Amino acid sequence: MKMERFSQQLKRYGRTSEGLDFTRPIAEGGQGVVYEMGGKVVGQTDLLAVKFQPVSVGQIVPPGRFTGVQQVQVNYLPGKIVIFDQRGGSYEHMLTDEEHLRLQNVIFERQTLKLLESIKGVVGYKHQKFYVLEGMLFSALFMEHLKDCVPLDEMLPGMDKEGKYHVITELGEIVRQLGEKDIVHKDLKPDNVQVSQSGDVKLLDF
Fold first, then answer.
1. Which terminus of the chain faces fewer neighbouring Cβ atoms within 10 Å, N or C?
2. What is the mean pLDDT of residues 143-159?
3. How far is residue 65's CA from residue 56's CA, in Å, rounded to a whole number?
């Protein structure tokens, strides 16, 4: 599914079954759409960034079984998943190769962020949920919202030599700590390195 179409579907429904809304998009990439969310519906006083990513290629639950965007529980078994809805119903789905890869990717990102919680310069992980939209399954990854940060390439031109040295040094330290945990960031680029006005560095999108 192209992200533009996926984003339009989310926007059309407006909010999830428990009240998360899709009115404040932050970013859209090849793998997902990120929204700004907060308040009582996510149990946080601070805003969060929520990354929505399609898991299924097509409809995997009976059409009409869900209205809007409904939260579900997912059990991952070899070669298949079992989806449990809020009414007690369950649906078994054999994964295609592409769906298997998508599911592995969202689980890997969650596990990586959780593993790296102790590293100050990595975007903070909160939790992960799964939802069904128009019979399709997608993941929602709840993370720290870097509201006051900008991409590295936007911040550096306006910084003096000392500020640039500080930012590059911080980034190098984050990468060093990742190496100690045998983690390699495979998409290290300016958009994935966010810098605050005070020069703090955050690495995201593993």
1. N
2. 85
3. 16
Residue that has been written with the tokens 């809805």 in this structure: 85
**C-beta of residue 20 within 8 angstroms of C-beta of residue 27:** no
pLDDT single digits (tens) 25-41: 777 766 778 888 765 44
- Phi, psi at residue 167, to the nearest 5°? -65, -45
Q: Are strands 33-39 and 44-54 parallel, antiparallel or unpaired?
A: antiparallel
Q: Inform me whether the pLDDT recorded for 18 exceeds 70.
A: no
Cα 192 to Cα 152: distance, rounded to the nearest angstrom: 8
Strand partners, 125: 143
Model pTM above 0.90: no
Query: How far apart (Å, rounded) are the C-alpha atoms in residues 179 and 174?
Result: 9
